[in-house]
Structures are given as structure tokens and as C-alpha cells.
Structure prediction request, 815 residues.
Amino acid sequence: MSSATAHEAHHEEHPSGIMRWITTTNHKDIGTLYLWFAFIMLFIGGAMALVIRAELFQPGLQFVDPQFFNSMTTMHALIMIFGAVMPAFTGLANWLIPMMIGAPDMALPRMNNWSFWILPFAFAILLSTLFMEGGAPAGGWTLYPPLTLQTGHALPFMILSIHMMGLSSIMGAINIVATILNMRAPGMTLMKMPLFVWTWLITGYLLIAVMPVLAGAVTMLLTDKFFGTSFFNAAGGGDPVMFQHIFWFFGHPEVYILILPSFGVISSIVPTFARKPLFGYSSMVYATASIAFLSFIVWAHHMFTVGMPLSGELFFMFATMLIAVPTGVKVFNWVATMWKGALTFETPMLFALGFIIMFTIGGFSGLMLAIAPADFQYHDSYFVVAHFHYVLVPGSVFAIIAAVYYWLPKWTGHMYNERLGKIHFWLSTIFVNLTFFPMHFVGLAGMPRRIPDYALQFADYNALSSIGAFGFGFSQLLFLYIVLQTVRGGAKAGDRVWEGADGLEWTLPSPPPYHSFTTPPAVR
Amino acid sequence: MAQAQTQGYYVPHGSHWPIVGSVALFTLMIGFANLLNGASVGATLMALGAALLIVMLFGWFGTVIRESLSGMYNEQVDRSFRWGMFWFIFSEVMFFGAFFGALFYVRFFALPWLSGEGHGILTNHELWQGWQAIWPVAANGPEAIGGKYEIIDPWGVPALNTLILLSSGVTVTWAHWGLKEGKRSHLIWGLVATVALGVLFLILQLKEYMHGIHELNLTLSSGIYGSLFYMLTGFHGMHVTLGVTMLTVILIRAIKGHFRPDNHFAFEAVAWYWHFVDVVWLGLFIFVYWL
Ligand SMILES: [Cu+2]
Prediction:
């Protein structure tokens, strides 16, 4: 024990000021960096969404030219996916996993620092393309050739910035997987791990498996443009559709990378506020694993209209519909956890409930899109936009917000303002539905996505969506205010914070010591 | 103090190497993108970035080696490194998987469809009537991009290279036995042989590239065949180069006596990597050169 204290004292010599943050190898510091980075990117990507919604408030061209509009849709997606949601989950993983498994820190602390510090540079490159000759990338975040190959000076910058983001994600994921496999306290067997840890183990595996595939796909784009290869050029024997296959082999697991950690968050929060243990823990683990497995064999459901043999359409349709089974298991288990529970509705629970309901809406519209013949109608319409925003905004983003409210008292030692938190929840929930629900209708009626102008009959719903988007965007300033207020002060939070909370992180003081568990805790 | 660190899990102080690496990567990438756009600063920036990256790698690995030699790493730290290396190699497998996937897609779907099979019948009829893809000798597309080419005979240098890489897999294992039995010269000569075989492979591969480009008119722009051939073998060659570099470092460290029979993770990591490079080559030999 005395050796552990010496160890501890040794590391208290960390530098202060900006150098502390630049050179840190501490999982909490790095988690904080990831979370703030994600928050900043959320506002940048959100501002781009508001440019889109301002233009779409009325039919006709008002504010921006179509090229810039397309840049906004492309950049909004790239920033929200790679800059906001993924770093936010990595930040949560950094903060929470060592505390949840009883470890002193992450397995590879220096590499942990590098994983984060690549990101600001990668996004500086990506954002700089806004000011380049030919404008920022405007061919959609899916980067389909040949359209994407018509990007101006921005093309190599965008591709190389994606390489850097991929490098960061792979290193981050390797670190998380190594931490979970190697740093658990004695007695913390795999099937005793909190579900957040489980979902991240599987997410990490998915990241390591598919980010290199994305790297391969964009490398082929780069060589097709600059080195004379013919990967996506039919005249040379290649095939532009091949890009879509490679891209979506990455892209579909990627959507689970964006959602699986949310399942972990919700599985932590619901039992706490239902004051009951999670219903069906092991089925949750197996469901997550099956979702991850299925995610590798469904990619072409993004390509039903592109030209595929009938056998392909059928295989990808049925495989995709199978995913509804493990996902249904999860939703069932959350509801069953609440069944006859002593429920209270603090802010994290409200966001978790919002998640369960609205993610399920997005899941059902996904099931509709999975039906190949129906998809011929929905493809590339606003229905698709409605679908994936339902799983990503009131899905992933709500889960991240829920996680922040749930663990912020642990991280800072202060309680957030419950009244403001509830207001934030209701504003967000009302506006997010106002934004995205009408998109189902305009989509089914035939409004295409990625278009700055539209036919008159879509005007009313688009105006509603735009009002909702501005409302949702500005509501997040309230979130920023609440977080800052909590960081700076507020009522003292106890160790356990929530009376129903269970798990090793609640046995540590709030805020926890610099190194989480210098001696491994005893695990029941 | 030193003893305290052998007991707990070693969590290093802050490190400035990652940020140096980020700046290096940033400079390298900005330089490369500028070079591709035809801006004159590109090459200079790239050189600067690459130099800084090398400084970073020396500094970072140097620190890790020093810490390892002073006994700061316990068994658990060693296991973290093992998991890290394992998953890194897995990510590399998936990277090659993307290119192998492209190879199979082109051979089994794209080219037959362009030749009019299945739903490609109208495309072929309307756009490129009568064009037939013949893998590998006429697979540069209906517009024969890059002109007529010949392929590299698999049973010449490529077969020899297969033999060389397989032998190098044996020599590195032989060196590992030497290390585990504490036979220094056995270890060192095994590594010397492995490095030599790796270098020989690279020289032969370069000569074969020259032969392909100058005499067979097989270039990176020989349609999809040339694209797949050079990208797959080229990325493999880059990995062999990296592997040879790492083996050389390991050889120098072995000469300096850094490894103990029961503690030599760095050696094993490089050996794993070398076997991975070996297996990728087998895939290349079978599916790119031979079949
Ligand atoms: Cu999908």
C-alpha cells in the first residue's frame, strides 16, 4: 500500500496550464478533452445544419448557392459523425471504463493522448477546405465516385483528414479493447462487466475492423484521381458501384459504432432510476454481439436501387430485418427493467426514456427501409433523412446527453441544476420531433434529400422542420450553460450520487482521484 | 521508487511525443495534399513532416525501451502491449481485406458484368459491344486503359520471392528459439538472415516492377488489373519495408543485449508482424500472380 502511495505522489508532478492538457496521459483528462472537443464540433456541425434549415425554410433559393448548400450537408455529416458523436463516446469510454472495471488508468496511456491529439489537427484540415478553391467537399459524406472526384482542391485534404480520423479511431479503439481485456480488477469477470463496458468492447472491435476498410476505400479514390488507377472507372474495367460496396462494408458497422455505446449508457441509467437490476443482462450481451455480427452482412441495404442481382437484394433485405430481433430484445429488456420499478424521473432518466421511445421510432422506419421493394420509393428521400436522424439525434445524441447528466456529478463533484436540466429535456424533445417528424411526410410524398430547393407542396412541413431545428440548436446553448455551471460549482455530490446507482465508479469519491484505482478494488 | 513502479501498473507522466507526432502527421498530410494539387510547397512540407515523424518515433520508442530496460513494466503492462499489437495487426488485415475484396469483386462481378453477363447484358450491348474481359491479360477495361500489357510470370521471380519470404519466416522462428534458450549468436544470426532475406525480397520486387513497367507495359494505369496489381503488391512492399526496418531495430537491440529469454515482447511483436506480412504475400501470390 505504501508503494502505491509513493506511486501516486510521483505522478502528482504533472504540469499545469495548457501543457497539462497537451501532454496528459491521464484517462480523465483525455476523456474531458474528447468530450469538450465533441461539444465544440457539435456546435460547428449544428451551425451547418442551421444553414441547411435556413435555406430550406422556404422553397426557392434564399441564402446560399446550391454548391455551398451541398458542402454544408457533406460537412455537417462528416463533422457530426467523426467529430461529435464518435469522440463523445470515446470521451465517455475514457472517463468511465477504468473506473467501471477497477483499473488505475487506460492500458496504453501515451497512445491514448495521441488518439485524441490527432483529432484537432484532422478537423483543422477538414474545416480549412471551406476556404479552398472549388469549395469544401460537396458530394455527400458517402463520397461516391465519380461525383466526389469532381471536388476541387479540397479532395486530397478531405481524404487525408479522413485517414487521420481513422488513425485516431483505430488507436482509441485498440486502447479501449486492451483496457477491457487486460485491466479488469480481479473478480471482474467478463459477464460481471457493466453493459457500457460490454458495448464498448464490441464497438471497439467494430472500429478496428472497419476503419481500415474506409481507409482503403478513400485511398482508392485518391489514386483514381491522382495516380491513374481505374478502381471506380468502368472504362478501365473497374466499377463505381464497387466503391459503394466497400464504403458500406465500413458504413453499416459504423452506424452501430454510433449507437452501441448508447445502449450501454441506457442500460446503466434505466436500472438506477427504476431501482431494479437490469432485466436480462446476459441477453443484452448476446444481443449486442449478434448486432455486431449481423452488421457485417447487411451493407448493401444502402444500395437496393443501385443495381444488384435479385439474390443480393433478397439476402440483404432479410439479413437486415434480422437485426430487428436483437434490437427488439434490448428495447424489451429496458421496458421490463422499468416494469413495477420505483421510477423517478431525474434528467438522465428523462433523456433515457426519450431515447427508448424515439430510437424505437427510428428503428421502425429503418425496418421499413429494409424492405427492398419499398425502398425503391424511399431511397434518397427525406424519409431516409428522418430515419437516420431519429436514431442519431434522439438516439445517440440523447444518450450522450443522458450520460453527461448521469455522470457529471461524479466527474465534477457537483450536482447540476435539476430544474434547468428538465427544461433542457423538454425543449430538446419537443424541438427534435418538430424537426424530424415532418421529414417522414415530405419524404414519403417524394421530396429528395440533398437539394436546396423543393416543390411548393412541401413548404409547410419544411417551415416546421426549420423552426424545430433552430429551437433544438439554441436549446443546446442551455445545455452548455448547465454544464459550465456544474463544473464551476453547485451542491456537493455524494460518492454514490444516485441512490439506485450500482457499479464501481460510485464507490470512488466525487470527483474521483487522479488515478482511479491504484489498488484493485474487491469485486463481489 | 523503482521498486514501487514494478509493483503497480506503470502509468507514465505526461509525454510530449504524441503532440510532436500530431504536428508531424499534420505537416506530412498538408504537404502531401499540396503536392497532389500541384503546389510547390508540398514536397518541402512533406519532407519536414516525415523528418519530424522519424524524430518522434525515435523519441517515443526510445523512451519505451529505456523504461522497459529499467524494469518499470510488470507482466500486466506486457499483456497490454501484446493486445495492442494483436489488434493493430488485425486492423492491418482488414486494410488489406479492402483491397482483396476489390480484387474478388472485380473478378467475379464487375468484369463479367462489363462483358455482358447477367444484368450487364445491355450495358455491354449498348456501350461496349462485343468486349470480353480476359483475366489477367486483357482486364484493363473496354477502353483498354494503359494499352496492351503482359503479366508477370508467377513461376519466375514471384515464386522465388515466395520461397524467400517463407524461409525468412523460418529464420525468424529459429532466432526466437535461440533467444528463448539464451543462445545469443543463434539469435543474432537468425535475425541477420531474416533481415537479409527481407532486403533480398525487396530488391527482387523492385527489379520485377522495373521489368513490368519498362518491358511488359504493365503500369499502375493498366486499367483495373494494373491498379489492383500495383496497389496490392505495393502496399505489401511498404509493409515489408516497415517490417525490415523493425527487424533491423530488433537486431541492433539484440546485439546490445536488450532481450532476456523470458522477457522480449518487442522481438515477438516484430515476429508476429513479419508472419503477417508473410501470410499476405501468400494471398498475393495465389490470387494476384497465380490464379
Ligand atoms: Cu446500414
Q: What stands out?
A: The radius of gyration of chain B is 23 Å.
